[in-house]
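Input (structure):
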C-alpha cells in the first residue's frame, strides 16, 4: 500500500522535488504552496509554479496564509499523511503539524548542516567563499534547522556558480537523494543522526541594503557578493548620485598596486588594456555589465561610450 505524502513547496527550483515524489510508488495526496500574489503595476495574479503542476494532474492544492491556523491543522489531520516533505516552503510549521504525520516531516536544506542553518544558506555559502557545499535531508523539529539528519550529499562549488545556478543544482541533487532515501527511511534502514550544535553556523534574511558595494572590501569579496545577491536584491554602487547596478564582474586580485585610490574607476590596466575596473582594498574588480536606474543592461564599454567622465571618478563607499 503506497504511503500518503503531503508536499509543501513554492519556488520553481523545487519542482524537481515534487516530480521525484510523483514518480515514486507513494501517493502525493495534497500540495501546500504560498497564496497567489499580485505583481507588477497591473496587479496581475501570479500563480506559484507548484500549484500549476498539481492542478494539471488533479492533486488538491492548499494555499493558507499561515500554518498556525487551527483549521489548517484540522485539514492536514483529515488528509492522514504518513509523511510530509518540505522544500523551500517559506513558512514555519508549528508542533501541532509536525506531530501529524506518522513518520514525521522531511525537509530538504541546501547546505551541509549544521553549517549555514537559517533562511539564506546558499547566499551565505557564496558570500563566505566556501569551496564545497551540499544538500541535507533532515527530520524537522521545532528548532531552526536543528533536526536529525537522514542523508547528505556534497557538491564542489564552481567559480561560475551564482545563487540561481547553485540553488537549482542543490535542489536537483536533493530531489534525487530524496528518491533514494524515502523508501530506506520508511523501511527502517536509516537511523536519523543528531546534529552537532557546536559546529553550527547561521545565515540570516537578506535585506536590500546588503546589495550596496563597499569598495574597501577586496575584489574577491565583492565578486562573491555579486554572485550571491543577483538578481535580488542586486548589487549596486552610486555614480553622480544615482544607483548603478553591477550585473556582471570579474575579480582580479593579483593586480596588487593599480593606479588610483580605493573606489576609483580605471582602465588600461593588466593584460586587457580595454578593461574597465574599480580599485578595491586588494586587487581590481573588472566591470563587465552594468545597469542604470530605469535603463536596460549595458556592457561596461557601451556605458563608458555614453559617459566619458566615468573613468577617473571615485565611487563612494
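Output (sequence):
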Amino acid at each position: 500500500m503506497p504511503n500518503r505524502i503531503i508536499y509543501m513547496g513554492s519556488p520553481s527550483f523545487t519542482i524537481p522535488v515534487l516530480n521525484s515524489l510523483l514518480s515514486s510508488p507513494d501517493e502525493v495526496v495534497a500540495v501546500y504552496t504560498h497564496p497567489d500574489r499580485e505583481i507588477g503595476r497591473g496587479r496581475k495574479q501570479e500563480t506559484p509554479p507548484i500549484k500549476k503542476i498539481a492542478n494539471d494532474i488533479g492533486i488538491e492544492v492548499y494555499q493558507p496564509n499561515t500554518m498556525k491556523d487551527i483549521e489548517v491543522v484540522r485539514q492536514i489531520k483529515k488528509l492522514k499523511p504518513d509523511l510530509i516533505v518540505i522544500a523551500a516552503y517559506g513558512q514555519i510549521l508549528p508542533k501541532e503539524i509536525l506531530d501529524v504525520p506518522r513518520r514525521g516531516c522531511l525537509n530538504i536544506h541546501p547546505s551541509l548542516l549544521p553549517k549555514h542553518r537559517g533562511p539564506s544558506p546558499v547566499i551565505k555559502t557564496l558570500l563566505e567563499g566556501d569551496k564545497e557545499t551540499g544538500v541535507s535531508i533532515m527530520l524537522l523539529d521545532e528548532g531552526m534547522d536543528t533536526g536529525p539528519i537522514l542523508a547528505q550529499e556534497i557538491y564542489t562549488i564552481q567559480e561560475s556558480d551564482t545563487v540561481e545556478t547553485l540553488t537549482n543544482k542543490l535542489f536537483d541533487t536533493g530531489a534525487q537523494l530524496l528518491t533514494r532515501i524515502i523508501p530506506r527511511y520508511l523501511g527502517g534502514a536509516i537511523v536519523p543522526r543528531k546534529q552537532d550544535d557546536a559546529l553550527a553556523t547561521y545565515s540570516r534574511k537578506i535585506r536590500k541594503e546588503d546589495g550596496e558595494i563597499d569598495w574597501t572590501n577586496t575584489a574577491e569579496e565583492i565578486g562573491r557578493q555579486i554572485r550571491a545577491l543577483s538578481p535580488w536584491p542586486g548589487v549596486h554602487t552610486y555614480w553622480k548620485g544615482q544607483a548603478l547596478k553591477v550585473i556582471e564582474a570579474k575579480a582580479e586580485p593579483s593586480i596588487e598596486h593599480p593606479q588610483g585610490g580605493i573606489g576609483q574607476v580605471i582602465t588600461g590596466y593588466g593584460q586587457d588594456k580595454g578593461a574597465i575596473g574599480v580599485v578595491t582594498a586588494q586587487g581590481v574588480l573588472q566591470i563587465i555589465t552594468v545597469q542604470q536606474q530605469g535603463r536596460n543592461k549595458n556592457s561596461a564599454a557601451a556605458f563608458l561610450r555614453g559617459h566619458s567622465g566615468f573613468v577617473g571618478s571615485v565611487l563612494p563607499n
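Notes: The chain has two domains: 4-199, 208-306. Helices lie at 15-22, 49-56, 70-79, 95-98, 121-128, 163-186, 219-229, 300-306.
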